[in-house]
Amino acid sequence: MEKEENILGTEKIGKLIKKFSIPCIISLVVNSLYNMVDQIFIGWGVGYLGNGATNVVFPLVVIGLAFALMFGDGTSAYLSLKLGEKKKDEAAKGVANGIATAIIVAVVFCCVTLLFLPQLLNIFGCTDALRDYATSYGRIIAIGLPFMIIGTTLNSIIRADGSPKYSMTSMVLGAVINIVLDPIFIFVFKMGVEGAAIATIFSQFITFILNVLYIRKFKSINLNKSMFKIKFSIVRKVIVLGISSFITQMSFVFVIATENNLLGRWGAQSKYGADIPITVVGIVMKISQILNSIIIGIATGSQPIFGYNYGAKRFDRVKEALKIVLKSSVIISTIAFILFQTIPDKLISIFGSGDELYLEFACLTFRTYLLLCICNGIQIPSGIFFQAIGKGVKSATLSLSRQIVFLIPAMIVLSNIFGLMGVLYGGPVADGMAFVLAVSLLTVELKRLGKGEHKSTTLVDDTSTNNILNKHLVITISREYGSGGRYIGRLVADKLGIKFYDKDFIGKLSKETGLSEEYIEDNEQKRNALAALNSGYYSGLSNADELFVKESELIKEVASQESCVIIGRCADFILKDNDNVIKVFIYSDMENKIKRAVDIYGLNKDNAEKEIKKINKLRANHYKHYTDNEWNDCTNYDVCINSDCLGVEKAADLICDIVKTRETVKLA
Predict the structure, then answer these.
(1) pLDDT digits (tens, 9 = 90+) for 72-81
(2) 204 in the same domain as 69
(3) pTM for the whole thing?
(4) Which residues contact 587 (CB under 8 A, 6 or more apart)?
(5) How many domains is the chain built from?
(6) Residue 467 located in a structural domain
């Protein structure tokens, strides 16, 4: 780990970006091509109506992928967290529960799709001309959904287990098999859209089998049958960790459904009819996804470079990395723009032939809908950059803005003004607005980067050596902000003559990770409401997760070596299996919290209550995320004390008395 961190801080930025980005690009592009292969062969073997049918069925595939990524990415993050905490059994249970839940959801989703396929196709904008093709294709695809969902779930977990090559091989092999079988079933056996669907589910089945075989080969954990028994507390945690992947995919489903219905409605009133617009726009979106996959791959691969150097306050390297990523992304998007504007007829011809109206609308769509695709070279990397440096709100805003906030309203409003062309105008309008938002946020962030930083409030915690305890004992103190809990903990440590740990952990983490003390202080023990929507484009741990894992290791190390008082940081949970721990929670009423916050911490009296509630909410979110328990639930602790009732001095005396009743002590 230390070697990798040194590389992130010292290796040439360009070399690092190549190293980390190329595997991401390959995986994402292969996945995008996987979705395009059927349409290419169907276009030549069946015609554009067959392609239109696959576009109507495609949202079902995306919904399946949403479930797969939620369980796959969520389980992967759970695995990494628990391994970081040195809890292999819990990690194994998380993996088993993630897999088991994915199997159940996959089977249920398959059954629901088969039972309600006609109704689902109507929701996704199916027309009468497309219905027979869509129904035939959709029923077979639905049968393969369990293989796709389970196989993709396992793919993410295998990657997190340290076998990215195996994960990539199984996925690429499935894609290759699909490419080989499509022409055989469509052209040789004359099976049309059914043949394409059979080729797809057969390739998914191969990937599924390869990934299932890996279960017995896990490097980091050992699974047994008993672990596959569903525990809802674990499943809930996995879902929380993977929910951002689910929301991202489902937002895409919402866009497709809205778009198809608008295209069908307004297309029917145009010379193109309803079927040509639904077919063409679906193809154009999948072609543009190749562009987005490359850009996402470049930026995602650069995430650890951004995150490490930002935390280590090496802002020159952050800016250099961002410059290379943006430059590369803009070059890629510019090349794509030139192709979309100059040879749209050649691009659409890859997917088979059509009549004059089909070709005319295809050229119109490429040149209009993707007019500002260059903007993607800025907007997409900006969202990933903010995610990497721990700016969750900005990242989530940029990630959702283009599709949900801008595109759907733009298509609805403009189509009511310009008809079918209004739907196409929605594309550049959304791209342009998302670009302006991204540039604005990015400009502000870069101006602030490295300037006007607060001085760290990290203090070396005073420690005593006059330990009056005969036995090894650790006291953890959780506290509401403004309750005086930290000061009470300091008094307890002084009275018992033992070490006091609070901000010392920040210094220790800084030395171990290379991250600045200011960065750690701003990011530890805090989790905002949007954090669950911002776990990333690729499975793995967030900055906060990495800090928690490291901090847990330090807390366990300190607790094993000496008697001490530890403030906050989920220490009560981290040490819950230790017999020599007394867990304390300190609280007080708002009036006294405000008084302390104003007098001691220098908060403005008018804003003190709001700030106190905000900080306590962040602490509660942090505790809930990592422990699955409520922060202020008295059952988590051995002792809960209202500091207003006794005052801080007597509260400290009470804790010392409790210690003395539990342990034999020397007279002070």
Answers:
(1) 988 988 888 8
(2) yes
(3) 0.81
(4) 479, 480, 483, 632, 640, 641, 642, 643
(5) 3
(6) no
